[in-house]
## 1
Amino acid sequence: MSSYIGIDCSTQSLTAVVIDMDTMRVSHIACVTYGIDLPEYESPQGVLANADPLVRRSNPLMWVEALEVLFERLKGEGLDFGRVAGIGGSAQQHGSVYLKGEFLKGDWLKEGRTLTECVAPLLSRSEAPIWMDSSTFDECRSIEAICGGSDYMRKTTGSAATERFAGPQISRFAKLEPEHYDDTGVIHLISSFMCSVLLGTSAPLDYGDASGMNLMSLKGFAWDPLILDATAPDLASRLPKLMPSTTVAGVLHPYFKRFGFRSDVKVTLWSGDNLNSLIGVGGWKTGTAAISLGTSDTYFSAMDKVNVDPEGCGHVFANPAGGYMSLICFKNGSFARERVRDDYGLSWKEFDNDAFQLTPPGNGGCMMLPYFTPEITPLVLNACPFYKGNSLFESKKDASAMVRALVEAQAMSMRIHSGWIGSKPKKLRVTGGASKSEGMCQVFADVFNATVERMNLEDSPSLGAAMRAAQSSGEWDWAKLTKAFCVCDSSKTIKPIERNVEIYAEMRERYSAFEKEITG
Ligand code: XUL
């Protein structure tokens, strides 16, 4: 029969998961870590150095080169490319890639040249702002003001004007580099850019990832002319077409036949990582809320009807399986965890496990606001962590208390800022690298008073992308795919502990007051 590849272009790596439709199992996994495998891009964590802490960009050619390395790796893993029927994809959300008009004409993938040699001449901007960028506060306020206020933006696009979203980023680029903006024929999200590279021609944008641009109306899944005008001159002519996430965009370009692909491999539209994760954790219909503990920490769940966050931090996106989904995102996810681990010279075991054995839930009243980098939820542009508690903790001598304070803050903030979604989950599916940690998952179970289920596979975005590719072939529906691939490891389920739930219910008030005191 056949297999499907799902590729996830994340902040720090490019990962492929292959699902085999004979065995209905994951058959291959391969990963390219930019910092390790492509050091020449000088982006140890996938991001270019920048003196301004609010500016975060990456080199799009790094993702393109990683794609070639990834296919080589899959070959090394023994994948039979001749069985691959389709490819789906996922990418970090919101990042924008700027290309010259020639990109739209196609015919730029040439045998005998590397992928980067083919794509490099087509970039009208050598760097792509990514989701970690917070430099567009002024553009956000100005776009909202022109459109008559943040209410219009939230109700139309599902999100308040948001610093990292592509619209405000495009606005800043058009303002600061008008000559390069003029030279830009088409602006892609990272997802649609990578999909275009596979097709050898400019791909449409899927409704799901396009919801994270502050440009599309959720009502008709169409560009909103008022917002487009408020964002940048002549923007409509520079945006790709919008299509449902289940669309097969075309066939894989013959350029890739050297890996052994067939000539009829279908490429399904790529989407954002959180949207793919929703599918990969089996959360495509309402009832399952998910937490992804990765570079960013996110909380998401399917939604039947649009319900926007009055505080403006949360988002509503088009669910790739139909309907909508809610999402909240925290920038101080694994970067903050790595920072505390490194500052205190801890091993992962000391961080993930021992620290929780050595400290009590509630941390004896010690709390942290973990703003090691500018935060998204709540909005904090001047990065600086804040501490409250006893002097040992405040003098920052107790490494275990620091770890607990960080993780409790991450869980508290997620619980508090997900209140607008309405339904309180009884079960949470936790995914992403840090979901391995027993100690962390217990904190999330106790803070949410919900059972934490952990997936067999942590790579939910790439799994979701492979499942989307299979679904769009028309042979498998969501229910069948979910049953086969979204399997939880029951031995790793964690139940909330009643006593801890009480401690955290009380702490929620104090944490909320502390957060308000600092962020206003
Ligand atoms: C979501 C967000 C991040 C990125 C990177 O809004 O900004 O989760 O998708 O993973």
## 2
Amino acid sequence: MRQHKLALCKEHYLEWVPEQAGRFIKKYGMFEKSEKILVAVSGGKDSLSLWHILVKLGYQADGLYLGLGIDGGVDYSHESQRLTERFAAAHNLKLHVVDVEKEYGHSIPVLAEKSHRGYGKPCAVCGLAKRHEMNRIARDLGYDVLATGHNLDDEAAVLFGNTLSWSSEYLLRQGPVLEGRDGLARKVKPLCRFYEREMTAYAILNGIEYIYEECPFAAGSQSIMYKELLNQLETNRPGAKLIFYLQFLEARKRGDLFIEKNAQVLHMHPCPACGQPTSAPGGECSFCRMIGRANIPQV
Ligand code: Q46
Ligand code: ZN
């Protein structure tokens, strides 16, 4: 690991990762041993490794798998669900499975088409549905915190994108912990300081079976382009990604980033249909409106 000027054997690597994760969890005040954690698992290396690490560290962590109904010629959703269920069974862990089609009548690609929010590119609909469902399950089942497997490469790519457009609101909110408020669960990213390669190594060395394919809709996305750019930078300057992200967190913490008082807190009210908080003026949340539109019978 050139970025840390560190080389470890398998045995020590498998100790080092959870130990580091435990440190980040404490450093950023993510959660305590007494709290109930819901881990969003996709069947990929990051989320399964995260679950593995949390359990290993003695945290109470259950899983949530969201069935998106994505095929993409590789049977993506079925295969990722199969691997997630297998992991949960092998480690004797509790997994909640929510199938979007069963719950709301349509799979993600169909919802995207019907709601006109993105035919052939359902990521906007998918992201909206994932946020909504994760929060719903966390709230309904009484979890204190929602953990996702975002790694450093993910976070650096988001940061890069937000910096390119100077999206101050997003920049002020990006970080390892997003505090919960008004019915929104606290969200944490315990892997945010691990390189993607580090998580791949962790999964492989532990013999965790995960889905190798990316979601077929991820191809050609902006975030993949940013990741490639950052990897080029990293090749020439080992540690560049980590420094980019950590220096940002430092600047944000010092309040050096923007003048925070200009960032207003949006007024939230409960959605009349599902009860989750929304800032949509006077009406249903964007998710319920999207489902509503998708279910209007077509003449
Ligand atoms: S799962 Fe969903 Fe991603 Fe697939 S459809 Fe797009 S947002 S790429 S992380
Ligand atoms: Zn709603």
